[in-house]
């Protein structure tokens, strides 16, 4: 036989042996025979087929073949003896083939050990599945893709009351129609039982004609990705449904009673809310009146203080300034006279010159001539600064101006800064970033009070030493003033309350909690608003925004 033929036989999936019917000797065997049975090929061709097929049935068969009675076999189970003495279960087929006018017997055999294991496993699985179906608390029905019942447990047939004659007849269509006929929603039930290849999972409540209620859940049954049927699970929820209905009825009655009581409470609450709103209105008006009174008293006090300070300081400053001016002229005349005397020192006697030189040395006349002018100039400069401070006090309080007027907020900010400078100079460096604001119509003294409150708060927020930045700007409609500090910042839960009257985060005795509230009221009456940005540990920014054109009726005099 050619090598290609040998190669083909050796790659066959079945054991193949060619037997001489006369001697029953194995003429040829493929490689799978040697691998499966364990006999070397040289040993195999020296053996007879009965050395391998040793059962009594096989011996009789091969005896008939030896006597010329050829009979073909298809798919017969048998046992093959392996080289190690183990018996191998096989399925064999026998064919009669002709070769060169001689008959030969071709034996085809397949090892079925694995198939037996698979069959045993399958049988065990089916047994477990049957036991599971019978032990579950639900009625189980399995229908294949053709609409035939492939399985049902006893609980299913019991809960539906399927007659024994239908079960014995195995009339699947009649059983399914019997089930649908017992349900009030018969069309729905019938449609579900017929939809065996639907991929959707379903859940339905079925009310039976006898008053019971079943819950039905169905799932598609797959082999691989192909739907081969559907599994239905039925639960009797009659008692649970009745309990739910009773509970629902009780809950409805309770809800009716609750609604009635709620109406009564809502009416009572509406009355209380009306009284509460009235009280809140009265309280708010009282707080506003109180705040306005405090503001008026504070501004009046500041005005009186500024007026008194200005009056008391202006009088002595006036005559001191006048006297220093006169003293400066006198000193200049005396120095001119001294220069004239020095011009005739050469005509004096030696004794006179020495006496004058001794006095000049004693009083350091040259230094006096140089320093006396500087002293008088510095004194006059100091008096000018005192006059500026007095003017800043007057500008801050505007004691001489009680009407609304055009004012420059940057000038007011500067005068306010000078007034509170003692609160700031040891705590912060002041940075000014002015935007050259246009004048607006306002009550300057009131806005100066806002700036003072914000500046003092900024200084108090800085614990050691920091920076306070004064920033201004404007656009077509608004002007704004920003006061930014590098203090400890404000907590987020406090930001919404900082403008409430009497709310303060300062220690007891450090603040009344009215500063920002009064500032908010002043800015609001100017038709403006205050914006706040703050971050703990980094500082805060307060921006006062005011309209450039204030309506005449918008602000009333404080």
TrEMBL record:
Keyword ATP-binding: no
Domain PAS, residue spans: 125-179
Entry coiled-coil feature ranges: 251-289
Keywords of this entry: Coiled coil, Phosphoprotein
Enzyme class: transferase
PROSITE patterns in the record: HIS_KIN, PAS
Pfam families: HATPase_c (PF02518), PAS_7 (PF12860), PAS_9 (PF13426)
EC id: 2.7.13.3
Histidine kinase domain: residues covered: 308-550
Reaction it catalyzes: ATP + protein L-histidine = ADP + protein N-phospho-L-histidine
Record-given protein name: histidine kinase
